[in-house]
Amino acid sequence: MYPVARLAKEAFVHRKAPTLGLFETHVSHHLCWPHDIDVWMELNNGRTLTLYDLGRLVLFRRIGLVDLMRRERWAGTVAGASVRYRRRVRMFDRIEMRSRLIGWDERFFYLEQGMWVRGICTSHVLLRTAVTDRTGMLPTARVAEVAGMPPDSPALPEWVHAWGAADATRPWPPEID
């Protein structure tokens, strides 16, 4: 089940947080609860992605995209993710999450998020996201124009390009028998 109460808590905690610049980092704090763990007594990988949602949604509000999307009747979607899990997160661990926009290309916005426990990064996710309306995905240039963002993104890091290129070689639909 989606953690609606946690999302409401994040919205409440950060309701008066100052606006962030487009590429600034939003920092939030979370706790790994018993209902977040798997049979191995660590943060479930699916729940990790859900917790990343909480950081991303507040980031979008703080950089001004939530109000814009509501006004324009746009929605957001995740179009791809690459996650590195490096350290276990155990029940009752306190998590510091960092979320930031990296940049965009013609179709997608790229974000990165990381979780830290006791100063050690436990996981990192690279996300390819899109803004949609009732007709489908919007070009990032359109979103940037309406949002008053610069028309051109800063150069995306090479590792972001490499992931996109590698992902483009995967067959679709999958060839699973």
Structure commentary:
This protein has about 180 residues and is of the alpha+beta class. The chain has one domain (about 5-170): Roll (Thiol Ester Dehydrase, Chain A), CATH 3.10.129.10. Helices cover about 30% and strands about 30% of the residues. The chain has helices spanning about 5-15, 45-60, 65-70, 140-145, 160-170, and strands spanning about 25-30, 75-85, 95-105, 110-115, 120-135, 135. Strands 1, 2, 3, 4, 5 and 6 form a 6-stranded antiparallel sheet that branches. The longest helix is centred in the N-terminal third of the chain and has 18 residues, at about 45-60. The model has no long low-confidence stretch (mean pLDDT about 95). InterPro entries: HotDog_dom_sf, THEM6_lcsJ_thioesterase. Pfam families: 4HBT_2 (PF13279). This is Thioesterase-like superfamily protein.
Helix content bin: 25-40%
The figure for the number of domains is 1
E-strand count:
6
CATH topology: Thiol Ester Dehydrase, Chain A
Secondary-structure element pattern, one letter each: HEHHEEEEEHH
- Biggest sheet statistics: 6 strands, antiparallel
- The CATH homologous superfamily name equals Hotdog Thioesterase
State the name of the first-level CATH class.
Answer: Alpha Beta
Could you give a quick summary of the protein structure above?
The protein has helices spanning 4-13, 45-62, 65-72, 140-147, 158-168; strands at residues 26-31, 75-85, 94-104, 109-117, 120-133, 136-137. It is an alpha+beta fold and 177 residues long. InterPro entries: HotDog_dom_sf (IPR029069), THEM6_lcsJ_thioesterase (IPR051490).
